[in-house]
Amino acid sequence: MNGDTAAWWVYLLQCSDQTLYTGITTDLNRRIQEHNGLTGGGARYTRSRRPVQLVWSEISESRSAASQREAAIRRLSRLQKEQLIQDALGDPL
Q: What does the pLDDT look like over 39-64, one tens digit per residue?
């Protein structure tokens, strides 16, 4: 698949220091391995906050849509991000 037809994911990771990291990818499993240092790559932010755990993800129709959603999520407060995670789990806070 090329970049135009691949499924794009927006995701939230919980780091070992309990901070939340937002990113986009076409391969969630690969990206989480990268963030955890199991393969090359990963974000500088998560390198000193390993291990990380996937706590939320959402598929997007395109890279552009994923990038816009990522930016919107980054603007949310911590409480709003936690609510997003809880809503996806179906658990009330």
A: 988 899 999 999 999 999 999 999 99
Q: What tens digit of pLDDT does each residue of 56-86 get?
A: 999 999 999 999 999 999 999 999 999 999 9
Answer yes or no: is 51 within a domain: yes
DSSP 30-80: HHHHHHTTSSS---HHHHTS-S-EEEEEEEESSHHHHHHHHHHHHTS-HHH
**Residues 6+ away with beta carbon under 8 Å from 89:** none
Count of the separate structural domains present in the chain: 1
Kindly report whether the peptide bond that precedes residue 51 is cis, defined as omega within 30 degrees of 0. yes
Residue whose structure tokens are 């291990």: 51
Task: Count the Cβ atoms, other than its own, within 10 Å of residue 82.
Answer: 17
Q: In this structure, is residue 2 part of a structural domain?
A: no
Give a yes or no: residue 61 inside a domain: yes
Residue 1 domain-assigned (yes or no): no
